[in-house]
């Protein structure tokens, strides 16, 4: 560019015409234009020494004004032959690609041509220039008034795909919180799929064109890509991380004084917070962990239903509550952070004709919503008794499936999660829910007023999370299902003999199941396989390509008889027993089911089943538990029942003293049928270990079954188990029907009051029972300390906590010295008494919430905890050893004393540290303690 031309243009303020409503390229907010194209123009001005002012308007306003000479430069214009005589163009600075977008939870197949869209409903903007091209190819086109409406139509499932500009569609998907919408690809449309963005001037402004072209050429390609990413992926936020976040001295001192902060997280609000495999996880959890990392605050999570958490928060029993929306009624007891995510609330319905546009569209319908959700009051004021509140998200969508309610109001991602989890194929989104004062749901952290400085600290930490970090978290939780992706990727390969066998069977195998053992497995009212076993079978099918045909039976005994008669080839969830080996082969166990003894609520707890000698105890007919109990407790009077509900009813009636069943299935029945007068009396030693069983006259089936089992990962097992956890009993009252009772209204209200009180009592007793079941599942039945499942749940998490907060992680292996001699000389009962005494001593010595102890197996225990700098692990464990040495256990030969050897490893774990390495070092130190004479405490070498 000539120096004189540059100087002349630099002295003049040039008017640039930009489109006012073309997000994210250009838009006007508060009178100031912004967007990708505006960023490009500012870069051009800086490189070329130009000064710009912007005139924003619609294209029909801007284009004629440019041709009249009222505007110096026009932006976002494409080259056309008919325009070439009227203006001069720069080279393109951007190509806007027209693409197909889909929902990754309802993915399209690979697209090679426009015709591949024919089987689908395809959304476009009304009167878009390529609509006729799509229609001419036989595609069913649905028109929408603008790009935001188009994106929502795809998110709500009204269309299967949408066609539009890539950057703009991605921008609106991100802005709407629709992380599950992604670009599926582009398809050729005769050149209509690409639009070039240029700057143009009138022919008389040749020197200005030269300056603009030079300014564009001076923008580095990397800078251009960064600007595009900023608007396409981050909505205009700066991509670079904010300035380093540092606490002030006062804030640092405050955090140190504060100690652990109890944070409430909903247990059923996927994908934002939910419990899976005993661990709370989700988008809000990841954000919380990042806030904790930045601020140094210590977090103790409390997972429960929203109504329980909100009550605990208001009473000051938890300090922070996640996933809370700002509402005037809550400001008295809440100090809010900024939002960490905003999501739309929508109307879910099974009615294909319902279209929600305004609140009146819900008049006369039974409306379900989450109890204590921020808009509950507004909805109840408008719709009165037709509104039903639910404390469980799963139960709420279950009510919609059953027809107990007509619509559900819920956040879109959470609602879609439950629609998929429960297989509600006929549930659709009727529209985005809004009414005066109720817009999208802003997810924030709420802090109780007494901890107001903490609210500021957390807010500053949220602001310090970079857009890239935020996007990474959102992509993790709002994108496609990870399990679904793994299923598609990992395909089993079979040997030639296995392939030949499957080909001979037409790729189909007959499966027999336990028809009434939910949620482990069962047949639903339509005869379809359901439960954990069904999920595993679906996973086997996806990995192998084998089609499994369910052979319907009425009882588990009938299923076993069908297997003996060779009417079925495979049983997906069966336990190996001596009797069954006569006609079945078994894979390695892949799923374990804890067993419990249940009895009437007034019955005393028992230490072991041998206390019930001679009393009738029920078991499921044909179940492996019966065979195990007969072998271990010959004094029990075993009574077989046809299904577990019958067994529990007979316990209620006093016909059975107890019933032995699986923890998961009896928990499901207790809640589903409101059996609040039954409780857990004891954990039954020995879990039921479930395998895939196959007929033993077809040897190829055994190796096929083992490959199916080996293809399932631990994370998938935990995810499937979590999906089928039982839900709590819900208080559902049809108030509309109540008011129709006319003269019986007062009586009805009285009955309603009594019934609600009864339900409240049932729920409280059920919650107590659930808590007891959870404790039983994680507790060693002999010693009362944690069991191996408890260890698996907490061990790695404790190390990661130490890793994040640079605390000392300590692991100690503790073993009773000469325990075999104790058993041999004094009997197993005295040996058990020693272990019980040791367990009580360990629990008394470990006083802090962060101290954990578990029975590792036999006479071996493991202690693990976080220690602050300066705490002496050696002295602490030595004090424990001395306490054990002082214990006395009664025996027929007099008081018995015993000792323990302790090996421990400690240190601040680095970024690459592994918890199992600490365990191995502690185990080696225990070996050293034994070798050096026992009754001593040895620290592992670093």
Automatic annotation (TrEMBL):
<feature type="domain" description="GGDEF">
    <location>
        <begin position="807"/>
        <end position="942"/>
    </location>
</feature>
<keyword id="KW-0472">Membrane</keyword>
<dbReference type="Pfam" id="PF00990">
    <property type="entry name" value="GGDEF"/>
</dbReference>
<dbReference type="InterPro" id="IPR043128">
    <property type="entry name" value="Rev_trsase/Diguanyl_cyclase"/>
</dbReference>
<keyword id="KW-0732">Signal</keyword>
<dbReference type="Pfam" id="PF00497">
    <property type="entry name" value="SBP_bac_3"/>
</dbReference>
<feature type="transmembrane region" description="Helical">
    <location>
        <begin position="737"/>
        <end position="755"/>
    </location>
</feature>
<keyword id="KW-1133">Transmembrane helix</keyword>
<keyword id="KW-0812">Transmembrane</keyword>
<dbReference type="InterPro" id="IPR000160">
    <property type="entry name" value="GGDEF_dom"/>
</dbReference>
<dbReference type="GO" id="GO:0003824">
    <property type="term" value="F:catalytic activity"/>
</dbReference>
<protein>
    <submittedName>
        <fullName>Diguanylate cyclase</fullName>
    </submittedName>
</protein>
<dbReference type="InterPro" id="IPR029787">
    <property type="entry name" value="Nucleotide_cyclase"/>
</dbReference>
<dbReference type="InterPro" id="IPR001638">
    <property type="entry name" value="Solute-binding_3/MltF_N"/>
</dbReference>
């Amino acid at each position: 560019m000539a120096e004189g031309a540059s100087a002349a243009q630099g002295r003049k303020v040039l008017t640039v015409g930009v489109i006012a409503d073309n997000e994210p390229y250009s838009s006007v907010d508060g009178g100031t234009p912004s967007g990708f194209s505006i960023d490009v123009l500012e870069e051009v001005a800086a490189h070329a020494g130009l000064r710009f002012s912007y005139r924003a308007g619609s294209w029909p306003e801007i284009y004629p004004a440019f041709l009249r000479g009222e505007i110096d430069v026009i932006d976002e214009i494409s080259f056309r032959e008919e325009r070439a005589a009227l203006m001069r163009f720069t080279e393109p600075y951007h190509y806007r690609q027209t693409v197909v977008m889909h929902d990754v939870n309802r993915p399209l197949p690979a697209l090679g041509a426009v015709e591949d869209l024919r089987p689908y409903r395809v959304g476009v903007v009304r009167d878009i220039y390529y609509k006729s091209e799509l229609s001419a190819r036989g595609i069913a086109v649905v028109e929408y008034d603008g790009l935001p409406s188009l994106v929502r139509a795809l998110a709500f499932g009204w269309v299967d795909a949408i066609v539009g500009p890539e950057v703009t569609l991605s921008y609106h998907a991100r802005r709407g919180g629709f992380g599950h919408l992604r670009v599926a690809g582009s398809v050729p449309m005769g050149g209509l799929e690409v639009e070039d963005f240029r700057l143009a001037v009138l022919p008389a402004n040749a020197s200005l064109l030269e300056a603009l072209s030079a300014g564009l050429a001076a923008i580095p390609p990397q800078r251009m890509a960064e600007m595009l990413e900023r608007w396409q992926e981050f909505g205009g936020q700066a991509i670079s991380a904010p300035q380093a976040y540092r606490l002030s001295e006062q804030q640092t001192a405050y955090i140190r004084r504060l100690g652990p902060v109890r944070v409430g997280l909903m247990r059923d609000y996927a994908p934002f917070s939910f419990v899976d495999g005993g661990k709370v996880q989700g988008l809000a959890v990841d954000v919380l962990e990042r806030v904790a990392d930045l601020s140094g605050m210590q977090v103790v999570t409390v997972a429960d239903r929203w109504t329980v958490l909100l009550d605990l928060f208001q009473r000051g029993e938890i300090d922070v509550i996640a996933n809370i929306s700002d509402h005037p009624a809550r400001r008295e007891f809440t100090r809010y952070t900024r939002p960490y995510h905003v999501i739309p609330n929508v109307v879910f319905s099974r009615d294909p004709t319902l279209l929600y546009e305004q609140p009146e569209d819900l008049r006369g319908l039974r409306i379900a919503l989450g109890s204590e959700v921020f808009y509950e009051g507004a909805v109840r004021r408008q719709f009165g008794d037709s509104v039903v509140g639910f404390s469980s998200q799963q139960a709420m969508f279950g009510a919609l499936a059953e027809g107990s309610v007509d619509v559900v109001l819920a956040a879109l991602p959470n609602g879609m999660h439950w629609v998929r989890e429960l297989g509600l194929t006929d549930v659709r989104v009727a529209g985005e829910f809004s009414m005066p004062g109720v817009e999208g749901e802003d997810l924030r952290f709420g802090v109780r007023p007494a901890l107001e400085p903490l609210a500021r600290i957390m807010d500053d930490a949220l602001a310090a999370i970079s857009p890239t970090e935020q996007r990474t978290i959102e992509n993790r939780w709002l994108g496609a299902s990870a399990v679904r992706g793994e299923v598609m990727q990992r395909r089993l390969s079979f040997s030639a003999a296995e392939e030949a066998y499957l080909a001979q069977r037409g790729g189909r195998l007959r499966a027999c199941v336990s028809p009434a053992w939910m949620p482990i497995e069962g047949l639903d009212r339509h005869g379809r396989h359901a439960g954990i076993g069904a999920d595993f079978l679906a996973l086997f099918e996806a990995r192998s390509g084998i089609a499994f045909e369910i052979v319907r039976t009425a009882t588990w005994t009938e299923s076993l008889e069908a297997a003996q008669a060779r009417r079925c080839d495979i049983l997906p969830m069966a336990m190996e027993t001596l009797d069954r080996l006569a006609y079945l082969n078994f894979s390695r166990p892949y799923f374990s089911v804890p067993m419990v003894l249940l009895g009437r609520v007034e019955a005393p707890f028992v230490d072991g089943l041998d206390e019930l000698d001679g009393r009738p105890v029920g078991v499921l007919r044909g179940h492996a538990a019966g065979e195990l109990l007969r072998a271990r407790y010959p004094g029990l009077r075993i009574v077989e029942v046809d299904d577990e509900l019958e067994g529990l009813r007979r316990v209620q009636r006093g016909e059975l003293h107890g019933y032995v069943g699986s923890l998961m299935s009896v928990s499901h029945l207790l809640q589903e049928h409101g059996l609040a007068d039954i409780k857990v009396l004891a954990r039954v030693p020995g879990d039921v270990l479930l395998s895939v069983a196959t007929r033993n006259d077809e040897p190829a089936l055994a190796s096929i079954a083992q490959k199916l089992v080996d293809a399932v990962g631990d994370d998938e097992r935990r995810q499937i188990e979590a999906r089928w956890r039982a839900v709590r009993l819900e208080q559902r009252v049809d108030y509309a029907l109540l008011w129709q009772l006319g003269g019986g209204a007062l009586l009805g209200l009285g009955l309603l009051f009594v019934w609600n009180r009864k339900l409240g009592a049932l729920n409280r007793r059920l919650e107590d029972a659930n808590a007891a079941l959870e404790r039983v599942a994680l507790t060693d039945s002999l010693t009362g300390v944690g069991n191996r499942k408890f260890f698996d749940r907490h061990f790695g998490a404790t190390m990661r906590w130490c890793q994040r907060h640079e605390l000392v992680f300590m692991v100690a292996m503790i073993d009773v010295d000469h325990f075999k001699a104790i058993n041999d000389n004094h009997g197993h009962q005295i040996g058990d008494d020693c272990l019980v005494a040791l367990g009580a001593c360990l629990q008394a010595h470990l006083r802090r919430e962060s101290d954990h102890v578990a029975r590792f197996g036999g006479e071996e225990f493991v202690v693990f905890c976080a220690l602050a700098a300066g705490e002496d692990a050696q002295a602490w464990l030595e004090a424990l050893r001395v306490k054990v040495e002082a214990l006395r256990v009664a025996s027929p030969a007099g008081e018995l004393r015993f000792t323990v050897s302790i090996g421990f490893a400690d240190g601040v774990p680095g970024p690459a540290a592994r918890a199992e390495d600490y365990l191995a070092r502690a185990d080696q130190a225990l070996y050293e303690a034994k070798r050096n004479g026992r009754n001593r405490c040895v620290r592992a070498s670093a």
